[in-house]
Specification:
- This protein has 464 residues and is an alpha/beta fold.
- The protein folds into three domains: 98 residues, Phage tail protein beta-alpha-beta fold (3-Layer(bab) Sandwich); 64 residues, Peptidase S8 propeptide/proteinase inhibitor I9 (Alpha-Beta Plaits, 2-Layer Sandwich); 244 residues, Peptidase S8/S53 domain (Rossmann fold, 3-Layer(aba) Sandwich), CATH 3.40.50.200.
- The chain is 25% helix and 27% strand.
- It is built from ten helices and 26 strands.
- It has a seven-stranded parallel sheet with strand order 17-19-16-21-22-23-24, with helices on both faces. The protein has a four-stranded mixed sheet with strand order 5-6-3-7. Strands 10-11-9-12 form a four-stranded antiparallel sheet.
- A hairpin with a 4-residue loop joins strand 10 and strand 11.
- Helix 6 crosses helix 9, helix 7 packs parallel to helix 8 and helix 9 crosses helix 10.
- The chain is globular and about 75 Å long.
- The two termini are 22 Å apart.
């Protein structure tokens, strides 16, 4: 990582030693052009000059099938029909291409699409990751008291008729909950001229990230690194702000530090890997692919669960998670999440931490759109989108002036002996965090690492 050129073998290693060109797949269109009624065996479609792989991604998303296509197969599909049986619908969608549908026992069916022979259908089509946006929590406010304020938060909450449901005492920031939106709006107006307050802002919810999908594979590549015994000062700690991380396989678990919880107990491990588990393994795969001298590494992952047992988290709890990670020694923060809600509290915390040498990587989002996604769009965060090794952005991934770098958008993880596929800009962000950690472990300072990554993995812009 000592030049702006991509490290030799980086992209080849990030394909996890498989021959499937997983992360180049174009994905979804908008406005639901495909409806697959599985129970009735009927399909509705309305595509106008849609790319073949985008259509197949819709089919994979609707059916749960594993779809393989012969590489370099390109078609523009324009069809419109209603209530066709699945077989006839496939024929209309695929035109003169050949296909074979292979049912599986206790596993997803497999659809092979090809020009010459079934054996040539080797490129896996990745279903489009579902977009996740933030939602305003109408009956909550985040208030930040001025340093040295004589007003106590308990007194303030009592006066406003609010409950204190979250606190960041060291930053004088508190999450207040009101009985309804009208009460919160009235409190905001009252607080607008309160001299004891530094800031009053809204709180936003962020949904749980998309679950992973089971994948049938003959094997997954072995993990080549072992944790190197080191002092606390020589460790490179990645704060993984996410869902809880379950036990990892293949020796990776030794890279995990004891986890932190900021939103309540995490609950028991499930049958599927959590998003946090998938991101932890992806970070380590990115680390292994970019480590100059494979063997041992001083890098560790600090899991910070900001979801707990809830179906979502909030921008306030994300800020709490970042604060906890930085205080615990994290010098790289992975934020494979986001939405369109801005948070002054989180932005200020990221700015202060970045000024102290902490690197931030954030997911650009999977809509696709040019609208900013936060926290990725804050200037101190390296905003990561999905795409190919030439810097082209994948069709499913967000773009726009706030996006900084591009990385593979698909990862294969192993959990309880089963392979799973996880896709989206969350995955791309985890890869970049791993690459940054490898560079930090090699002795580069934070400013060098960030400059190298922004140059070496830059998004391809028009006219460049």
């Amino acid at each position: 990582m000592n030049s702006t050129r991509r490290p030799r073998g980086f992209w080849r290693a990030l394909r996890l030693s498989i021959t499937l060109n997983l992360w180049l797949t174009p994905l979804a269109q908008s406005a639901e052009p495909l409806r697959w009624h599985t129970a009735e065996n009927q399909v509705d479609a309305n595509f106008d000059s849609a790319e073949l792989q985008s259509v197949l991604a819709k089919v994979a998303q609707a059916t749960g099938w594993q779809i393989y296509v012969e590489p370099d197969t390109a078609r523009l599909i324009s069809v419109k029909f209603r209530n066709l049986p699945a077989g006839e619908a496939l024929r209309r969608l695929l035109g003169d291409l050949n296909f074979a549908l292979l049912p599986q026992t206790n596993a997803p069916s497999r659809l092979f699409v090809y020009r010459t022979s079934l054996q040539e259908a080797t490129q896996l089509i990745t279903p489009a990751p579902e977009p996740k946006r933030s939602r305003l929590i109408p009956n909550e406010l985040i208030v930040t008291l001025k340093p040295g304020s004589k007003t106590s938060i308990d007194e303030l909450a009592r006066r406003l008729g609010a409950k204190i449901v979250g606190h960041l005492d060291d930053l004088n920031a508190y999450r207040l909950q009101f009985k309804d939106a009208a009460s919160a709006d009235a409190a905001r107006q009252l607080l607008a001229t309160d001299p004891s307050l530094a800031k009053v802002e809204s709180n936003y919810s962020i949904d749980r990230p998309t679950q992973t999908q089971p994948l049938q594979m003959s094997s997954t590549p072995a993990f080549p690194l072992k944790p190197k015994v080191s002092t606390d000062t020589s460790k490179v700690v990645i704060g993984l702000i996410d869902m809880a991380v379950q036990p990892l396989s293949g020796g990776m678990n030794e890279f995990l530090l004891p986890s932190l919880q900021v939103a309540g107990p995490s609950g028991t491990p499930g049958e599927l890997p959590s998003h946090g588990t998938s991101m932890a393994e992806t970070i380590l795969r990115g680390l292994a692919a970019t480590t100059v001298e494979p063997g041992e590494s001083v890098v560790r992952i600090l899991p910070v669960d900001v979801y707990g047992p809830r179906p979502d988290t909030t921008t306030f709890d994300v800020a709490r998670g970042v604060y906890a990670a930085v205080n615990a020694g994290a010098t790289i923060i992975n934020l494979s999440m986001g939405g369109d809600g801005e948070s002054g509290l989180l932005a200020n915390l990221i700015r202060q931490s970045h000024n102290s040498g902490v690197l931030f990587f954030g997911a650009a989002g999977n809509e696709p759109t040019t609208l900013p996604t936060y926290p990725a769009a804050y200037p101190e965060v390296v905003a990561v989108t999905s795409g190919d090794k030439r810097g082209n952005i994948a069709p499913f991934a967000n773009r726009g002036s706030f996006v900084d770098v591009v990385a593979p958008g698909v990862s294969i993880v192993n959990y309880n002996g089963q392979s799973f596929l996880v896709s989206g800009t969350s995955t791309s962000t985890a890869y970049m965090s791993g690459a940054a950690a490898a560079s930090r472990a090699a002795g580069n300072d934070p400013a060098q690492v960030e400059a190298q990554i922004r140059a070496a993995f830059a998004v391809k812009r028009a006219g460049r």
